[in-house]
Task: inverse folding
């Protein structure tokens, strides 16, 4: 049951943070989540729902939609989550634990080393 819950948390994060990204961009968001959790399945949900980490988790449930089972983006997010958790996919971000969309310039970015630019996101790790 723990793994199913972890897959759900990770899939929801991929879906809400990166569903419009190419496959590698979705894997990158999953990689950041896993890097923050130290690749520990028991820490995935706490990482996803940690305060002020992923914007979609701060919205009222009515402000974001729960994916329909038939939604292709949702199916893909679940597949990626399953593959990451089962060790079938590896980190494509070079150890990143943070990212942002390329359209914004958060003040914190200068405190970290850029590790990758994938899709519409730039990825960072602690120096």
Result:
């Amino acid at each position: 049951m723990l793994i199913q819950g972890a897959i759900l948390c990770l899939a929801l994060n991929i879906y809400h943070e990166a569903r419009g990204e190419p496959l590698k961009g979705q894997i990158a968001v999953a990689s950041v989540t896993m890097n923050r959790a130290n690749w520990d399945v028991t820490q995935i949900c706490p990482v996803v729902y940690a305060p002020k980490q992923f914007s979609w988790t701060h919205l009222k449930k009515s402000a974001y939609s729960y994916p329909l089972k038939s939604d292709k983006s949702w199916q893909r997010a679940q597949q990626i989550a399953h593959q990451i958790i089962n060790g079938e996919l590896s980190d494509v971000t070079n150890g990143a634990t943070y990212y942002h969309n390329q359209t914004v310039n958060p003040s914190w970015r200068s405190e970290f080393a850029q590790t990758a630019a994938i899709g519409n996101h730039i990825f960072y790790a602690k120096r």
Summary: The first strand starts at residue 98 and ends at 101. Residues 2-18 form the longest helix (17 residues). The chain has one domain: 2-92. The two ends are 36 Å apart (CA to CA).
